[in-house]
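Reminder to self: tokens first, then the designed residues, so the page reads top to bottom the way the pipeline ran.
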């Protein structure tokens, strides 16, 4: 029984190690995709002719770039804050994702209205999360 308790006590450390390794690998993959997206944006700006340019696609690529950037920043913050994900980073990612959705799919005015209400709710949540009552970062 004593041996079993020893293993059970080590289980959280083992699971934390697996989580950290997985997040590190996800960070590497996202960094590669961020570099790929950066190349895509630069090639769009400098290599495409005016006839080939589609500004909706460019805006979509730019927002995907920011999503990669925010997820990488979230992973970095996780390691810097002693294995804690700040809530406000998830809200930033949500706002960026909904803005991208509005830009990509803006055909239906009702949906666009509801998505903008969702952004308003997330901005309100961000104000609450940044208040001194909830802020936990050191």
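Designed residues (138 positions):
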């Amino acid at each position: 029984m004593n041996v079993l308790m020893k293993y059970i006590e080590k289980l959280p450390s083992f699971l934390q190690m697996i989580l950290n390794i997985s997040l590190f690998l996800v960070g590497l993959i996202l960094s590669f995709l961020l570099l790929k997206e950066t190349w895509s944006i630069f090639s769009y700006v400098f290599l495409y002719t005016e006839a080939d340019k589609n500004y909706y696609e460019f805006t979509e690529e730019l927002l995907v770039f920011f999503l990669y950037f925010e997820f990488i920043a979230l992973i970095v913050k996780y390691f810097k804050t002693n294995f804690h994900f700040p809530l406000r980073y998830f809200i930033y990612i949500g706002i960026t994702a909904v803005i991208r959705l509005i830009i990509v799919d803006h055909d239906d005015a009702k949906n666009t209205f509801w998505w903008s209400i969702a952004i308003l709710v997330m901005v309100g949540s961000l104000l609450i999360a940044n208040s001194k009552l909830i802020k936990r970062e050191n």
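Residues 27 and 76 are 8 Å apart (CA to CA).
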